[in-house]
């Protein structure tokens, strides 16, 4: 019984961390795509990036690069979290 | 050899490869037939997702759509890529952990209800069917444009090829042909893009020359001079509200398209599901970072070649001649001054179909006939790969979810496989029929499929994973609200082209157009399912355990 309780604790910890990752990445997702690309498109179009305006670049290319980075970050961080979780379980088992 | 001969040769070679893969991957069990035995390697699945996802529209039409929408073309560029963030973070890992065959499988089990399963299966069939008509049509159009074959014959040839590898290999055959088709698609898209970039800017990397060169700025200036809207300025073609809503509808719709979701079931672990999303966005991003450059470059080149030039001189250009005969490019010297007036007003004398942006680029850039043939093969690969993914998804909704899980729970493995293949054959015939006789509102079909995906399946799956208290009453009420509202709004806003009414019954939903209204349906789905679920009993204990299990980390051989 005690062991089961400990496992539940571990899973709760894992889920909490997962949710925190997801929320922070989705905040960036929304800020770049809907903030930079749409809501603040007008003010940001005064900033120049080489031959195009900054907001135009975000809307046509930059956001896609950010999407890739977000998905990559999540995959890497979840790999790390999985390893930490496995290590904790192993410690629990060995006492 | 003539362009036609090279095109035929190349198309035949790719078709032999696709059918060969089908023969090599023929399957004998339902797990292989529906989810490719759940052992597709991560990178291959990423390529398969990309090909599954990138339809005839992405390949042939999108760069043109962006070229004519300017800044506002971001609805497609961000809208058709941003959904992968939602899929990778919110849906894919958990659905893989759940580990069955289909989307209705998850909804039916999670909401412990045959009604929920049936509603999800019907939504799946409806979304996939609307989408597949455009793909089969795309196959016919590529055949007719490049090989002067009748559209109907083109559709039938496409049907035969898809039918062969999908019937034999099921999801396994579909997966491996899609992975190969991705590389045909991307090579066919990149070579002309690099060539036109080198020709206009001296830099052969279109993704970079798009920002480092001054083409976009010059295009902006020319458009202002011709009295059109400024290319680089936001919200000149669509309101900010609509750009926002349409982008969100396409993103959430992506995450709610069953044929995309189901691809994440085919890998061997949760970790592999996360990493195949990484590969998918790399493969998709490669085309989507290039498309805005192709759009801007080809449009600049087109205007530069024809605007204010003598009509006779323009009509003498080789590629202008060719595309004039297809009707994609038309001139009408209204004022009889002998010059081509290209403007935004009534005195405009040029009609340009957006599809010409991608289709004519190889000729404009003076590329070898081989490249023109390659673009035809790429267009076919894009249409066939998406069609095959949709086909297997429709099939599984009927033969797995409705026949096996609802009507005949004791069906044997061999029976299920046979029913699967028969269903696939019927689905194929239906797909060919709608490809040959497309509904009059073919152009609106995409809005419909994405709007429904966003308003029905996406919210329900999301709540099923993240809201433990969500029960069957809430889910069914939500999914029906989203579906009915979105169907009703799209039907009334687009009534002119769908039902042939005189003018639209309503203009918009408080300023939101048909392509964005799915977002409102999605919000209603969330609100209704939340309220209904809180007023009814909580889900049974074993369902709460199922949710815990779906959320729990997967500790298997590759971690511990």
Protein model, in words:
The complex is a heterodimer of chains A (95) and B (560). Chain A has helices spanning 2-39, 41-44, 54-94, and strands spanning 48-49, 52-53. Chain A is mainly alpha-helical and 95 residues long. Chain A has a two-stranded antiparallel sheet with strand order 1-2. In chain A, helix 1 (2-39) packs antiparallel against helix 3 (54-94). Chain A is elongated, with a radius of gyration of 20 Å. The two termini of chain A are 15 Å apart. Chain B is mainly alpha-helical. Chain B folds into two domains: 1-435, Sodium/glucose cotransporter; 444-554, no CATH class. Chain B contains 25 helices and two strands. The radius of gyration of chain B is 24 Å and the shape is globular. Chain B: This is Cation acetate symporter. Chain B: Belongs to the sodium:solute symporter (SSF) (TC 2.A.21) family. Chain B: It is found in: Membrane. Chain B: It comes from Gracilibacillus dipsosauri.
Please give the alpha-carbon distance between the first and last residues of chain B.
Answer: 59 Å
Oligomerization status of the protein chains: heterodimer
H/E series of chain B: HHHHHHHHHHHHHHHHEEHHHHHHHHH
Broad CATH class of the largest domain in chain B: Mainly Alpha
| β-sheet strand percentage of chain A | under 5%
Radius of gyration of chain B: 24 Å
Write the layout of secondary structure elements.
The complex is a heterodimer of chains A (95) and B (560).
Chain A: H1 2-39, H2 41-44, E1 48-49, E2 52-53, H3 54-94
Antiparallel strand pairs in A: 1-2
Chain B: H1 3-24, H2 30-35, H3 42-53, H4 56-69, H5 74-77, H6 83-98, H7 103-110, H8 114-147, H9 151-201, H10 206-212, H11 215-225, H12 240-255, H13 258-261, H14 270-306, H15 311-315, H16 318-325, E1 329-331, E2 350-352, H17 356-359, H18 361-364, H19 369-407, H20 413-436, H21 445-466, H22 472-493, H23 495-498, H24 518-535, H25 541-551
Antiparallel strand pairs in B: 1-2
Helix pairs in contact in B: 1-9, 1-19, 3-9, 3-14, 3-19, 4-14, 4-19, 6-12, 6-14, 6-25, 7-8, 7-21, 8-9, 8-19, 8-20, 8-21, 8-22, 9-14, 9-19, 9-20, 10-14, 11-14, 12-21, 19-20, 21-22, 21-24, 22-24
């Amino acid at each position: 019984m005690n062991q089961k309780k400990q496992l539940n604790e571990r899973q709760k910890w894992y889920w909490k961390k997962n949710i925190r990752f997801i929320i922070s990445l989705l905040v960036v997702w929304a800020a770049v795509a809907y903030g930079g690309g749409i809501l603040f498109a007008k003010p940001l179009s005064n900033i120049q990036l080489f031959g195009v305006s900054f907001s135009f670049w975000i809307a046509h290319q930059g956001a896609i690069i950010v999407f890739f980075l977000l998905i990559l970050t999540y995959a890497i961080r979840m790999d790390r979290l999985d390893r930490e979780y496995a290590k904790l379980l192993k410690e629990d088992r060995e006492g | 050899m003539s362009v036609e001969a090279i095109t035929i040769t190349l198309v035949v070679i790719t078709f032999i490869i696709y059918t060969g893969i089908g023969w090599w991957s023929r399957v004998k069990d339902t797990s292989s037939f529906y989810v490719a035995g759940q052992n597709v390697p991560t990178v291959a699945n990423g390529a398969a997702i990309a090909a599954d996802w990138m339809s005839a529209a992405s390949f042939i039409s999108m760069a043109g759509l962006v070229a004519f929408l300017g800044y506002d073309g971001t609805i497609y560029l961000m809208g058709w890529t941003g959904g992968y963030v939602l899929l990778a973070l919110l849906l894919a890992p958990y659905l893989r952990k759940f580990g069955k065959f289909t989307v209705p499988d998850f909804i039916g089990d999670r909401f412990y209800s045959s009604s929920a399963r049936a509603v999800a299966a019907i939504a799946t069939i409806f979304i996939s069917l609307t989408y597949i008509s455009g793909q089969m049509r795309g196959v016919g159009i590529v055949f007719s444009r490049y090989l002067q074959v009748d559209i109907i014959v083109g559709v039938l040839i496409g049907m035969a090829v898809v039918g062969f590898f999908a019937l034999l290999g099921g999801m396994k055959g579909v997966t491996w042909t899609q992975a190969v088709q991705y590389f045909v698609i991307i090579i066919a898209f990149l070579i002309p893009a690099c060539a036109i970039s080198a020709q206009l800017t001296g830099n052969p990397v279109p993704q970079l020359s798009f920002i480092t060169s001054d083409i976009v700025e010059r295009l902006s200036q020319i458009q202002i001079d011709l009295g059109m809207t400024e290319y680089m300025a936001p919200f000149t073609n669509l309101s900010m509200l609509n750009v926002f809503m349409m982008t969100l509808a396409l993103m959430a719709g992506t995450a709610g398209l069953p044929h995309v979701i189901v691809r994440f079931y085919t890998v061997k672990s949760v970790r592999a599901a996360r990493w195949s999303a990484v590969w998918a966005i790399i493969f998709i991003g490669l085309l989507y970072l290039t498309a805005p450059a192709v759009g801007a470059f080809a449009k600049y080149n087109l205007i530069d070649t024809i605007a204010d030039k003598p009509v006779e001189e323009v009509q003498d250009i080789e590629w202008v001649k060719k595309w004039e005969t297809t009707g994609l490019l038309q001139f009408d010297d209204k004022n009889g001054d002998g010059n081509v007036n290209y403007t935004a007003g009534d005195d405009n004398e040029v009609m340009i179909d957006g599809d010409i942006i991608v289709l004519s680029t190889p000729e404009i850039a003076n590329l070898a006939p081989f490249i023109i043939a390659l673009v035809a093969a790429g267009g076919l690969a894009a249409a066939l790969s998406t069609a095959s993914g949709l086909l297997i998804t429709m099939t599984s909704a009927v033969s797995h979810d409705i026949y096996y899980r609802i009507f005949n729970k004791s069906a044997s493995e061999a029976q299920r496989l046979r029913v699967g293949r028969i269903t696939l054959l019927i689905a194929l015939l239906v797909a060919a029929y709608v490809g040959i006789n497309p509904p009059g509102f073919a152009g609106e079909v995409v809005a419909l499929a994405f709007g429904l995906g966003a308003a029905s399946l996406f919210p329900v799956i999301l709540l099923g994973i993240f809201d433990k208290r969500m029960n069957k009453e809430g889910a069914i009420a939500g999914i029906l609200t989203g579906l009915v509202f979105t169907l009703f709004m799209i039907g009334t806003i687009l009534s002119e082209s769908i039902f042939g009414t005189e003018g639209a019954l309503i203009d918009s939903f408080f300023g939101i157009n048909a392509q964005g209204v799915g977002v409102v349906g999605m919000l209603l789905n969330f609100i209704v399912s939340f309220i209904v679920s809180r007023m009814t009993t909580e889900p049974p204990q074993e369902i709460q355990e199922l949710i815990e299990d779906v959320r729990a980390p997967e500790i298997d051989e590759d971690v511990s």
